[in-house]
């Protein structure tokens, strides 16, 4: 009989590139044929897709930046890759607890209500009447 488990483990997905290394903040030079075998546009797409995955759910200050440049050097196609890591949070200096201060009573601010937007009056579309000339229809519309 099969064993009951509490959850299914995630499948280990083997990646083609060592993203941990590529996103460590160091500038890297990758050579086509040695470090990557795909078209340069595919490599760029893979790197930016991984960056988006790593940045998902993070604030702007926590997000990783990425710079990717390609060049032909002699007979080699190379890619220069560098991730820009977010700045580490500054450590908070410990200090002696401050003396308690008198706390003033604070009133909650009044609720703001959204202003209603006014919409311009809509005019009914003018239906063509074969019995009325264009001049008569224009005169009637002006009135």
Detail the topology: elements first, then pairings.
Elements (H helix, E strand, L loop, with lengths): L18 H4 L5 E4 L8 H16 L9 E9 L2 E9 L49 H9 L1
Antiparallel strand pairs: 1-3, 2-3
Describe this structure in words.
The chain has 143 residues and is an alpha+beta fold. It has a domain at 19-84. The chain is built from three helices and three strands; from the N terminus they run H-E-H-E-E-H. It has a three-stranded antiparallel sheet with strand order 1-3-2, covered by helices on one side. The protein is elongated. Residues 89-95 have low confidence and may be disordered.
What structural category characterises the helix and strand content? alpha+beta
Strand order, biggest sheet?
A: 1-3-2
List low-pLDDT spans: 89-95
Give Rg in angstroms.
Answer: 32 Å
Query: SSE string, helix = H, strand = E?
Result: HEHEEH
Largest sheet, in brief, is: 3 strands, antiparallel
Say what oligomer this is: single chain
Give the number of DSSP strands: 3
Compute the number of helices.
3
Helix content: 10-25%
Q: Into which percentage range does the β-strand content fall? A: 15-25%
The CA-CA distance between the termini, in Å, is 87 Å
Average predicted local confidence, pLDDT: 78
State the shape.
elongated
Question: Any key phrases for this structure?
Answer:
alpha+beta; three-stranded antiparallel beta sheet
């Amino acid at each position: 009989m099969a064993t009951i488990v509490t959850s299914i483990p995630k499948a280990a997905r083997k990646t083609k590139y060592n993203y941990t290394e590529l996103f460590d903040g160091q500038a890297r030079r990758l050579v086509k044929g040695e470090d990557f075998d795909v078209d340069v546009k595919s490599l760029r797409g893979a790197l930016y897709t991984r960056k988006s995955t790593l940045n998902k759910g993070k604030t702007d200050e926590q997000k990783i930046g990425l710079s990717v440049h390609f060049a032909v050097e002699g007979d080699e196609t190379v890619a220069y890759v560098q991730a820009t890591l977010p700045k580490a949070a500054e450590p908070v200096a410990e200090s002696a607890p401050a003396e308690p201060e008198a706390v003033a009573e604070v009133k909650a601010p009044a609720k703001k209500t959204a202003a209603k937007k006014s919409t311009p009056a809509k005019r009914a579309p003018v239906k063509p009447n074969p019995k009325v000339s264009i001049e008569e229809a224009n005169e009637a519309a002006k009135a």
